[in-house]
Write a structure and sequence with these properties.
globular
Length: 321
């Protein structure tokens, strides 16, 4: 499940990422902070000094990084660093596209950020919502696939979730209900929303990972998912959270205004690096399993089943553990 990075690939990958943000007037402070955090926590190479790494042009990186999974991971992290550039500029977009072409990878992000630079915020938002709508069924609770309605509430779904109250106190299902008590959100199905089935899977992932719903937590959780398995669906979650909370040009119905520079907040970059590392340590991806089947099990048992280790700092305000 987890993308395994060969130790020999780490240094050239980090060097390529550094070269890939050293454009125009150089890398931004937030970009550097995020790359340092990922190098320290996710790549587990705190010894690497970004300032002294050799430059790594796209064609040079393509010679060294040949594994398709490693190439895709490089691109996905490069996109995250791209989102952290403020203001966004054509040179950064071109650099991401250049490395992607050399590594023979592609993705919707190439269109989204090009739209932002060439056509402005409104068109980028339109492109993002088209992308999000396409991915929504793939990010929804698997056992609910194809059963959604868009024009009325789903009381039968709400009742099914409320039935978790009959489960043991230590169960995943009860923890899921406590999550809703804590956040004040309505249970999925209570209102009319195309997101109802998505929220079941997404919020179960919050509960099992123990990550709170702060803006920093949302970005970190999606990074955790990429750490678990860098597949199309998990990267779409990462890209969506970066666009909503970092790049600032897309917002779902649950968020009134898109945010920007979330990863510039104190500790946010390290939180992302730590959560990507926690995700990579998991033994399986629990984000799109049958959560209804897992609900009666003790939460601790579910976490052991998937190898979910405790957060580095349970009291940092971004975890519920």
């Amino acid at each position: 499940m987890t993308t395994t990075i060969h130790p020999a690939s780490v240094e050239p990958m980090v060097a390529g990422l550094m070269s890939g943000i050293d454009v125009a007037d150089g890398p931004g402070d937030e970009q550097l902070a995020v790359l340092r955090a990922l190098t320290r926590h996710y790549f587990a190479r705190p010894d690497l000094d970004l300032a002294t790494l050799p430059s790594m042009a796209p064609h040079e990186l393509a010679i060294v990084i040949v594994d398709p999974k490693e190439r895709r991971l490089f691109h996905h992290i490069h996109v995250a660093l791209e989102a952290c550039r403020h203001p966004q500029d054509a040179e950064q977009v071109a650099a991401v596209a250049g490395y992607a072409e050399a590594l023979d990878v592609d993705g919707p992000d190439l269109v989204l950020f090009r739209s932002l630079v060439d056509q402005g915020l409104d068109q980028a938002a339109v492109d993002y919502h088209r992308f999000a709508g396409h991915m929504l069924p793939k990010r929804s609770e698997p056992t609910l696939a194809g059963t959604g309605v868009l024009d009325r509430p789903e009381p039968e779904l709400t009742l099914r979730l409320e039935a978790f109250a009959d489960l043991p106190e230590e169960s995943l299902g009860r923890a899921y209900l406590r999550y809703y008590d804590r956040t004040g959100f309505d249970l999925p199905g209570a209102g009319v929303s195309q997101m109802n089935h998505f929220y079941v899977a997404h919020d179960m992932t919050h509960v099992i990972a123990g990550v709170a719903t702060t803006s920093q937590g949302e970005v970190a959780l999606s990074g955790f998912m990429v750490g678990m398995d860098d597949n199309e669906v998990n990267f779409s979650a990462f890209l969506a959270s970066l666009i909503i909370h970092e790049a600032g040009f897309g917002a779902p119905t649950s968020i009134t205004v898109a945010e920007s520079r979330t990863l510039a907040a104190p500790g946010a970059a390290d939180l992302l690096g730590q959560e990507m590392a926690r995700g990579a340590a998991c033994t399986g991806d629990f984000s799109l399993v049958d959560h209804f089947a897992l609900a009666p099990l003790p939460l601790d048992e579910v976490r052991r089943q998937f190898g979910v280790r405790p957060p580095d700092d349970r009291g940092d305000g971004h975890h519920w553990w």
